[in-house]
Amino acid sequence: MFVINQAGKLPNRLFYLSIPPNIFVDVVRSASRTASLPSGSGWTRFIVEKPFGRDSESSGELTRSLKMYLEEEQIFRIDHYLGKELVENLSVLRFSNLVFQPLWSRDYIRNVQLIFSEDFGTEGRGRYFDNYGIIRDIMQNHLLQILALFAMETPVSLAAEDIRNEKVKVLRSMRKLKVEDVVVGQYKGHTRGEKSFPAYVDDPTVPNDSVTPTFAAAALFIDNARWDGVPFLMKAGKALHTRRAEIRVQFRRVPGNLYRGSVGADLDMATNELVLRVQPDEAIYLKINNKVPGLGMRLDSGNLNLFYSERYQREIPDAYERLLLDAMEGERRLFIRSDELDAAWAIFTPVLRELEDKRVAPELYPYGSRGPVGAHYLAANYNVRWGDISSDGSF
């Protein structure tokens, strides 16, 4: 609990609930009755750390229970990825640069990729992780929130409710996921040189027969006028070859390209790509085609780069630091509203239930690899290649 009491001002209280979900309501009930400030004596707010339930029903029940003791404006559902510098910059990049405004639609974008990978396993979190899995832990919240910010229409203003209204519209326009839209995987043991890496089920807190996915890839679609037919490909996994979080925007071919003979059938070389690297080493870069210096006409794919570490000689605030300050100031635009949470769960709940009811076996992949082969087939269904394994090997 933070008690904020500046000289000459009303006292305020901020509770941070980074606790097991099964005691959320008990703690809120007790705090609201014994430690909240009376009306007119300052504010009392509660930051609620994920997970916000396991599906639509449990999430809805949690919201209803919290609202027995709190008003919606007192609840700050935190997703620390929304406090990342590059995620914060996403709307600035889009809405304050004319060069991107006309391009941000199905007319010019052929696919959008949201990629999250970690180069380590559950690392002692097996008991927690096995109850939720990678879809709930990363995709349904972190990546879906970024997708909503990316795809939303221009809000009326920068006010929190105007931004959150537009995010809800995007989420409500999305198709519910089906099993055929998803690939799940689980890392297995692997030996590289003299070093051995454990399998997920080697964790003593994980059941030996667990089918909980440590990797998932999904194809999502937004059925509205701006994004109709554009695949939003999402993948997240643990124990992969690298640590990264990024948004990759792949544009369409140039119609009637005069240089199509120089790029051949390589769709990835023939098109531009905008990349926002959220972590590590924050950066924005745009892949463009360029003539290789010399007497011939040979094209090459190069990058226009903005590396934050080189451009800005200052420390980038931690995401939690930013969000805690926002909560103290009552700024809600980076926190999740209850109807936004409902819309997000509606997309993922059907496929989560089917995966668990049928105990769908995840495809095994070696610790430290690029993940299951099925993810590449999923992308190929939409004539897409994952950008983080591009042929030029960059970034």
Automatic annotation (TrEMBL):
Superkingdom assignment: Eukaryota
Gene3D superfamilies from the UniProt entry: Dihydrodipicolinate Reductase, domain 2, NAD(P)-binding Rossmann-like Domain
Pfam families in the cross-refs: G6PD_C, G6PD_N
Enzyme Commission number, as recorded: 1.1.1.49
GO biological process: glucose metabolic process; pentose-phosphate shunt, oxidative branch
Alphabetical keyword list: Carbohydrate metabolism, Glucose metabolism, NADP, Oxidoreductase
EC top class, as a word: oxidoreductase
InterPro entries: G6P_DH, G6P_DH_AS, G6P_DH_C, G6P_DH_NAD-bd, NAD(P)-bd_dom_sf
PROSITE patterns: G6P_DEHYDROGENASE (PS00069)
Signal peptide residue numbers: none
Residues annotated as domain Glucose-6-phosphate dehydrogenase C-terminal: 92-386
One GO cellular component term noted in the UniProt record for this chain: chloroplast stroma
Annotated family: Belongs to the glucose-6-phosphate dehydrogenase family.
Stored PANTHER family: GLUCOSE-6-PHOSPHATE 1-DEHYDROGENASE 1, CHLOROPLASTIC, GLUCOSE-6-PHOSPHATE 1-DEHYDROGENASE G6PD
Function of the protein: Catalyzes the rate-limiting step of the oxidative pentose-phosphate pathway, which represents a route for the dissimilation of carbohydrates besides glycolysis.
Name of protein: Glucose-6-phosphate 1-dehydrogenase
Species in which this protein is naturally found: Triticum turgidum subsp. durum (Durum wheat)
